[in-house]
């Protein structure tokens, strides 16, 4: 299940996000930066107001990577259920020293390390976090006006982060100026939670959180079972497509095709459950963005010998969404002499087939 983490400034906003369906109340002062910290007094007031109805996380602040300072700020917030600590730009040694210094505190509350997509994230530190007793790791963005999470890290890289954290037994979260259309694209990666602030406020990120905005985001996050339900079997489906998407990637079984990239064209046409007559927002539809992300992820996955392998893998990924009934995938190599050579396959979910979890 993907949970919703909502960043709030104190007790009043905590009440709003709980009413709107947030799973985690995340306390911060957005005026002070990406991980601007609320004071311990505001944390106490928020904990009292939330009264155990939701876990409360507190951020430690936009801090230099100096162990004494970070330990002091985390210690001041140990009453929270989780404390989020940013791994700000610094050398691997400096960040490792901070993680090491937090080891004793990891026994006293749950610590979450925050990597910044636009702040030199060093994912080689993930095993150290697990070993030091951290509860989880998430990715956020540092520059809140310099683009969304996916502007700095591709969905394929984010998916790799989620996989790696899960393997290490860490909870995983994704955040960073996320907007409503990002939800479906990131939900495919199955992080433990998605985090929001800017999308929940009226106006700028440090403006007030609104109930309507929280509810709108809540409605977009798939609930348990909805992505894994049976496809609707009645009536003709609608169609969604991505045509002639050209990407350079490593492909080919011959020696001369190794160690270099060549242009490959992808076209996908999928039969989906009929689009609801009242569909007005991204939450109600299966987005072509999800198909584009799947193609990009394939292109980033390293050398593949056969176009057939790419086509099968893409068809499998697209059919993993319960709303897709059938998919036709065409993969063409564009640099081998004829205008194009390739394959086209069609795969359909058999009645009763559950989509992959
Ligand atoms: O922890 C999550 C952050 O508060 C996300 O904030 P943002 O959506 O404004 O980038």
TrEMBL record:
GO molecular function: dihydroneopterin aldolase activity
Pathway annotation: Cofactor biosynthesis; tetrahydrofolate biosynthesis; 2-amino-4-hydroxy-6-hydroxymethyl-7,8-dihydropteridine diphosphate from 7,8-dihydroneopterin triphosphate: step 3/4
Recorded GO CC terms: cytoplasm
SMART domains: FolB
Keyword annotations of the record: Folate biosynthesis, Lyase, Schiff base
Principal EC category: lyase
Top-level division of the source organism's lineage: Bacteria
The keyword Kinase is assigned to this record: no
EC number(s) recorded for this UniProt protein: 4.1.2.25, 4.2.3.153
Dihydroneopterin aldolase/epimerase domain mapped to chain residues: 240-347
Gene3D superfamilies in the record: 3.30.1130.10
Pfam families named in the record: 4HFCP_synth (PF04476), FolB (PF02152)
Reactions catalysed: 2 D-glyceraldehyde 3-phosphate = 4-(hydroxymethyl)-2-furancarboxaldehyde phosphate + phosphate + 2 H2O; 7,8-dihydroneopterin = 6-hydroxymethyl-7,8-dihydropterin + glycolaldehyde
GO terms under biological process: folic acid biosynthetic process
Chain's role: Catalyzes the formation of 4-(hydroxymethyl)-2-furancarboxaldehyde phosphate (4-HFC-P) from two molecules of glyceraldehyde-3-P (GA-3-P).
Family: Belongs to the DHNA family.
Listed name of the protein: 4-(hydroxymethyl)-2-furancarboxaldehyde-phosphate synthase
Native species: Aurantimonas aggregata
């Amino acid at each position: 299940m993907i949970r919703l983490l909502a960043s709030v400034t104190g007790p009043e906003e905590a009440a709003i996000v709980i009413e709107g369906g947030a799973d985690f109340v995340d306390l911060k002062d957005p005026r002070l930066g990406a991980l601007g910290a609320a004071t311990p007094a505001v944390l106490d007031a928020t904990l009292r107001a939330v009264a155990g109805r939701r876990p409360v996380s507190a951020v430690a602040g936009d801090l230099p990577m100096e162990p004494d300072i970070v330990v002091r700020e985390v210690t001041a917030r140990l009453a929270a259920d989780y404390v989020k600590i940013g791994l700000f730009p610094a050398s691997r040694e400096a960040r490792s020293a901070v993680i090491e210094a937090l080891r004793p505190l990891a026994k006293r509350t749950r610590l979450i390390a925050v990597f910044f997509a636009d702040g030199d994230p060093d994912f080689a530190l993930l095993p150290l976090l697990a070993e030091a007793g951290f509860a989880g790791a998430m990715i956020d963005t540092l520059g809140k006006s310099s683009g969304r999470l996916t502007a700095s890290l591709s969905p394929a890289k984010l998916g790799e982060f989620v996989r790696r954290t899960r393997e290490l037994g860490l909870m995983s979260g994704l955040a960073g100026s996320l907007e409503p259309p990002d939800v479906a694209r990131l939900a495919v990666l199955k992080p433990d939670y998605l985090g929001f602030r800017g999308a929940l406020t009226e106006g700028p990120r440090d403006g007030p959180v609104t109930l309507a905005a929280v509810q709108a985001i809540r409605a977009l996050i798939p609930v348990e079972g909805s992505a894994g339900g049976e496809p609707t079997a009645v009536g003709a489906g609608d169609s969604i497509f991505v045509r002639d998407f050209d990407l350079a990637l490593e492909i080919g079984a011959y020696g001369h095709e190794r160690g270099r990239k060549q242009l490959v064209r992808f076209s996908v046409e999928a039969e989906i459950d009929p689009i609801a007559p009242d569909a007005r927002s991204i939450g109600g539809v299966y987005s072509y963005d999800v198909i584009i992300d799947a193609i990009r992820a394939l292109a980033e996955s390293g050398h593949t010998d056969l176009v057939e392998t790419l086509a099968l893998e893409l068809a499998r990924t697209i059919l993993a969404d319960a709303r897709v009934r059938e998919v036709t995938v065409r993969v063409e190599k564009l640099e081998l002499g004829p205008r194009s050579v390739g394959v086209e396959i069609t795969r359909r979910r058999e009645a009763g087939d559950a989509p992959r979890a």
